[in-house]
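User: Some background: our group keeps a shared notebook of sequences we're curious about, and every so often someone picks one and asks for a predicted structure to add to the entry. Today it's my turn. The entry only has the sequence so far, pasted here. Could you supply the structure so I can complete it?
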Amino acid sequence: MHGSNVLFAIGPLEVTSAVTTMWAIILVIGLVSWLATRNLKEVPGPLQSLAELAVDKLRNYYEELLGKEHARKYFPVFATFFIFIVVCNYSGLLPGAGHLKGFALPTASLSVTAGLATVAFFTTHVIGIRERGLKHYALSLAQPLYLCFLMLPLNLIEQFVRPASLALRLYGNMYGEETVTENLYEIFPIGVPLIMNVLSLLFCLLQAMVFTMLLSIYVSEAVEE
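Assistant: Of course. Here's the predicted structure to add to the notebook entry:
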Protein backbone atom coordinates (compact mmCIF):
# COMPACT_ATOMS: atom_id res chain seq x y z
CA MET A 1 0.00 0.00 0.00
CA HIS A 2 2.67 2.49 0.96
CA GLY A 3 5.61 1.29 -1.07
CA SER A 4 6.96 -1.16 1.50
CA ASN A 5 6.81 -4.24 -0.84
CA VAL A 6 9.97 -5.15 -2.70
CA LEU A 7 9.38 -5.52 -6.44
CA PHE A 8 12.85 -6.68 -7.43
CA ALA A 9 16.49 -6.31 -6.43
CA ILE A 10 19.55 -4.89 -8.15
CA GLY A 11 22.35 -6.72 -6.39
CA PRO A 12 22.00 -5.92 -2.67
CA LEU A 13 19.62 -2.99 -3.38
CA GLU A 14 15.92 -3.71 -3.03
CA VAL A 15 13.63 -1.72 -5.32
CA THR A 16 10.17 -0.92 -3.95
CA SER A 17 7.09 0.53 -5.58
CA ALA A 18 7.93 3.93 -4.09
CA VAL A 19 11.25 3.84 -5.95
CA THR A 20 9.70 2.86 -9.29
CA THR A 21 7.13 5.64 -8.88
CA MET A 22 9.96 8.13 -8.24
CA TRP A 23 11.74 6.97 -11.38
CA ALA A 24 8.55 7.57 -13.37
CA ILE A 25 8.09 11.02 -11.80
CA ILE A 26 11.69 12.00 -12.61
CA LEU A 27 11.17 10.95 -16.23
CA VAL A 28 7.89 12.90 -16.47
CA ILE A 29 9.40 16.06 -14.92
CA GLY A 30 12.42 15.79 -17.22
CA LEU A 31 10.24 15.32 -20.30
CA VAL A 32 7.92 18.23 -19.43
CA SER A 33 10.93 20.48 -18.70
CA TRP A 34 12.49 19.58 -22.04
CA LEU A 35 9.26 20.18 -23.94
CA ALA A 36 8.74 23.54 -22.19
CA THR A 37 12.25 24.85 -22.90
CA ARG A 38 13.38 23.18 -26.14
CA ASN A 39 12.04 25.94 -28.38
CA LEU A 40 11.74 29.13 -26.34
CA LYS A 41 9.86 31.98 -28.01
CA GLU A 42 9.28 35.61 -27.19
CA VAL A 43 5.57 34.94 -27.65
CA PRO A 44 5.35 31.74 -25.58
CA GLY A 45 2.98 28.88 -26.15
CA PRO A 46 0.75 27.41 -23.41
CA LEU A 47 3.40 25.06 -21.97
CA GLN A 48 6.16 27.70 -21.96
CA SER A 49 3.77 30.24 -20.41
CA LEU A 50 2.88 27.80 -17.64
CA ALA A 51 6.54 27.04 -16.97
CA GLU A 52 7.47 30.74 -16.86
CA LEU A 53 4.57 31.48 -14.52
CA ALA A 54 5.63 28.67 -12.17
CA VAL A 55 9.26 29.85 -12.17
CA ASP A 56 8.26 33.46 -11.46
CA LYS A 57 5.97 32.48 -8.59
CA LEU A 58 8.60 30.24 -7.01
CA ARG A 59 11.38 32.81 -7.45
CA ASN A 60 9.27 35.53 -5.78
CA TYR A 61 8.41 33.16 -2.94
CA TYR A 62 12.04 32.33 -2.19
CA GLU A 63 13.19 35.92 -2.61
CA GLU A 64 10.89 36.86 0.27
CA LEU A 65 12.49 34.19 2.45
CA LEU A 66 16.16 34.44 1.43
CA GLY A 67 16.56 37.82 -0.20
CA LYS A 68 17.16 38.37 -3.92
CA GLU A 69 20.86 37.56 -4.00
CA HIS A 70 20.76 34.16 -2.33
CA ALA A 71 17.38 33.23 -3.79
CA ARG A 72 18.59 33.76 -7.35
CA LYS A 73 21.88 32.00 -6.70
CA TYR A 74 20.33 28.88 -5.19
CA PHE A 75 16.93 28.97 -6.87
CA PRO A 76 17.52 25.75 -8.89
CA VAL A 77 18.05 23.83 -5.64
CA PHE A 78 14.87 25.03 -3.95
CA ALA A 79 12.78 24.78 -7.13
CA THR A 80 13.94 21.19 -7.66
CA PHE A 81 12.96 20.24 -4.11
CA PHE A 82 9.56 21.91 -4.44
CA ILE A 83 8.64 20.54 -7.87
CA PHE A 84 9.76 17.02 -7.04
CA ILE A 85 7.92 16.91 -3.71
CA VAL A 86 4.69 18.45 -5.00
CA VAL A 87 4.58 16.08 -8.00
CA CYS A 88 5.25 13.12 -5.69
CA ASN A 89 2.44 14.28 -3.41
CA TYR A 90 -0.01 14.72 -6.27
CA SER A 91 0.83 11.28 -7.66
CA GLY A 92 -1.12 9.84 -4.75
CA LEU A 93 -4.32 11.34 -6.21
CA LEU A 94 -4.04 9.37 -9.44
CA PRO A 95 -6.34 6.37 -9.90
CA GLY A 96 -4.72 3.19 -8.68
CA ALA A 97 -2.11 4.86 -6.48
CA GLY A 98 -1.23 2.51 -3.64
CA HIS A 99 -3.10 -0.39 -5.25
CA LEU A 100 -1.40 -1.07 -8.57
CA LYS A 101 1.87 -2.98 -8.42
CA GLY A 102 4.82 -0.63 -8.78
CA PHE A 103 2.73 2.48 -8.13
CA ALA A 104 2.89 4.01 -4.63
CA LEU A 105 2.95 7.49 -3.11
CA PRO A 106 6.70 8.14 -2.63
CA THR A 107 6.36 10.75 0.12
CA ALA A 108 4.29 8.31 2.19
CA SER A 109 7.47 6.23 2.51
CA LEU A 110 9.87 7.16 5.30
CA SER A 111 12.89 6.02 3.29
CA VAL A 112 12.03 8.56 0.57
CA THR A 113 11.46 11.49 2.91
CA ALA A 114 14.59 10.55 4.86
CA GLY A 115 16.55 10.68 1.61
CA LEU A 116 15.14 14.11 0.79
CA ALA A 117 15.95 15.35 4.30
CA THR A 118 19.51 14.01 4.05
CA VAL A 119 20.06 15.91 0.80
CA ALA A 120 18.56 19.01 2.45
CA PHE A 121 20.97 18.58 5.40
CA PHE A 122 24.06 18.54 3.20
CA THR A 123 22.66 21.31 1.02
CA THR A 124 22.35 23.60 4.04
CA HIS A 125 25.89 23.06 5.25
CA VAL A 126 27.54 23.10 1.83
CA ILE A 127 25.91 26.46 1.10
CA GLY A 128 26.88 27.78 4.55
CA ILE A 129 30.52 26.78 4.08
CA ARG A 130 30.56 28.11 0.52
CA GLU A 131 29.22 31.52 1.57
CA ARG A 132 31.14 32.02 4.82
CA GLY A 133 34.14 29.75 4.62
CA LEU A 134 34.74 26.63 6.70
CA LYS A 135 36.35 28.44 9.64
CA HIS A 136 33.69 31.11 10.09
CA TYR A 137 30.87 28.65 9.54
CA ALA A 138 32.28 26.24 12.13
CA LEU A 139 32.72 29.06 14.63
CA SER A 140 29.10 30.10 14.12
CA LEU A 141 28.02 26.80 15.65
CA ALA A 142 29.80 27.70 18.88
CA GLN A 143 28.48 31.22 19.37
CA PRO A 144 28.72 32.94 21.78
CA LEU A 145 32.31 31.79 22.22
CA TYR A 146 32.37 32.25 26.00
CA LEU A 147 29.65 29.58 26.17
CA CYS A 148 31.07 27.42 23.39
CA PHE A 149 31.39 24.38 25.67
CA LEU A 150 27.60 24.50 26.07
CA MET A 151 26.41 25.93 22.75
CA LEU A 152 28.49 23.73 20.43
CA PRO A 153 26.94 20.38 21.46
CA LEU A 154 23.46 21.94 21.55
CA ASN A 155 23.86 23.43 18.09
CA LEU A 156 25.24 20.17 16.69
CA ILE A 157 22.28 18.26 18.10
CA GLU A 158 19.93 20.81 16.55
CA GLN A 159 21.58 20.40 13.14
CA PHE A 160 20.92 16.65 13.20
CA VAL A 161 17.39 17.00 14.59
CA ARG A 162 16.38 19.27 11.70
CA PRO A 163 16.59 16.65 8.91
CA ALA A 164 14.85 14.11 11.14
CA SER A 165 12.06 16.63 11.67
CA LEU A 166 11.79 17.34 7.94
CA ALA A 167 11.59 13.64 7.10
CA LEU A 168 9.08 12.73 9.80
CA ARG A 169 6.84 15.75 9.16
CA LEU A 170 6.48 15.09 5.43
CA TYR A 171 6.15 11.33 5.86
CA GLY A 172 3.65 11.56 8.73
CA ASN A 173 1.42 14.07 6.99
CA MET A 174 1.33 12.28 3.64
CA TYR A 175 1.00 8.80 5.14
CA GLY A 176 -1.78 10.00 7.44
CA GLU A 177 -3.63 11.80 4.64
CA GLU A 178 -3.45 8.74 2.40
CA THR A 179 -4.61 6.42 5.18
CA VAL A 180 -7.53 8.62 6.22
CA THR A 181 -8.72 9.04 2.63
CA GLU A 182 -8.57 5.30 2.01
CA ASN A 183 -10.44 4.46 5.22
CA LEU A 184 -13.13 7.02 4.44
CA TYR A 185 -13.51 5.50 0.98
CA GLU A 186 -14.22 2.11 2.59
CA ILE A 187 -16.79 3.58 4.99
CA PHE A 188 -18.35 6.20 2.69
CA PRO A 189 -17.64 5.14 -0.91
CA ILE A 190 -19.67 8.03 -2.35
CA GLY A 191 -19.16 11.75 -1.67
CA VAL A 192 -16.68 11.93 1.20
CA PRO A 193 -13.63 10.60 -0.71
CA LEU A 194 -14.29 13.18 -3.43
CA ILE A 195 -14.28 15.97 -0.83
CA MET A 196 -11.04 14.59 0.64
CA ASN A 197 -9.39 14.49 -2.79
CA VAL A 198 -10.33 18.13 -3.39
CA LEU A 199 -8.85 19.08 -0.01
CA SER A 200 -5.77 17.02 -0.86
CA LEU A 201 -5.05 19.32 -3.81
CA LEU A 202 -4.33 22.09 -1.30
CA PHE A 203 -2.80 19.79 1.32
CA CYS A 204 -0.21 18.32 -1.08
CA LEU A 205 0.85 21.79 -2.21
CA LEU A 206 1.08 22.98 1.40
CA GLN A 207 3.38 20.12 2.41
CA ALA A 208 5.81 20.93 -0.41
CA MET A 209 5.77 24.60 0.59
CA VAL A 210 6.42 23.79 4.26
CA PHE A 211 9.37 21.50 3.46
CA THR A 212 11.08 24.03 1.20
CA MET A 213 10.19 26.96 3.46
CA LEU A 214 11.93 25.28 6.41
CA LEU A 215 14.89 24.43 4.20
CA SER A 216 15.14 28.06 3.06
CA ILE A 217 15.06 29.20 6.70
CA TYR A 218 17.89 26.81 7.56
CA VAL A 219 19.92 28.06 4.60
CA SER A 220 19.20 31.67 5.53
CA GLU A 221 20.56 31.02 9.04
CA ALA A 222 23.61 29.27 7.58
CA VAL A 223 24.62 32.16 5.31
CA GLU A 224 23.89 35.12 7.58
CA GLU A 225 26.83 36.76 9.34
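Suggested note for the entry: The mean pLDDT is 85. Residues 6-223 form one domain.
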